[in-house]
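seq:
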Amino acid sequence: PIYNRMQNVYADQQTSYARLQTQLAQQNTQIAQLEADRQLALNLEPELSRLQNELDAAEKSYALYTDSLEKARIDRELDNSQISNIATIEEATYNPSRVFPKSLMMVLLALPLSLVVGALALYFFYLLDQRIHDGDKIESTFGVPVWTTLPDLEHAQDRSAALTSNLHRVYGILPLDQVDERGLTLGFTSVKDGAGVSFVIDRLAALLTEQGHKVRTENRAPARPGEIVLINAAGVSTNQEAFVLLRNADLILLVVRAKDTTVPMLEDTLHNLNTAFKKVDGVIINRRRFEVPENVLKFLKRIGSRG
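struct:
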């Protein structure tokens, strides 16, 4: 009897196991189907969002269109009602003659107004121009004296006399009384290359030689008694060796090229030199060009001489 009962129990368990296996397969199938439906819903969500946005935009456009259509209908009815009440009083008149402004008056007013506007434009651009044209206001602004102003010789060969005169001004400022005792070293520098430092040194060396002084421009050795040394340390903003060359200079002169150097550039260079050497003895304005044309100056000079 026990064996039979055990067989019956085993058969029941086998039947339950088969039934559970069937249920497991069905549940796995349902899970797979639900997962596929969920993935399909996730894939359709962006499209549904886009369609919903298009639907909202279409509804707004339809509402605006309906409102505009209703306003257009109202305006049409109002226009029809107004047009129906219009009565022709007289024929339209047209006067082709010009009443105002008069052509002559416009011409007379345009001339002084154009002069005023042109003068204001020139003054405005003058305020915006930060280039250094001459030595005016340099000493009052930066506290450095302007030793001289050298004219531009590129377009006027007859200005050599003015150049020589201005170089004599530099010669008169130099402390020549110390040359016999311990010599004199002049350091010439500039904001950047091309300011004419070599030109100034060559012309000043020729002038000093003419006056009987012993001048040296090549060797970097300190000046000996009775000797004047001219040091070329151009381009202090880009040439780091310039500070080394200016270290033994008795006087430091900054050569500024007119119409090429701006006020911020000059201010920065003076600040660097004052920081390094505690001084800048003078400024030389080089290649200054007269704003008035040369022929106009000659004409005014002839008129003055005749007067």
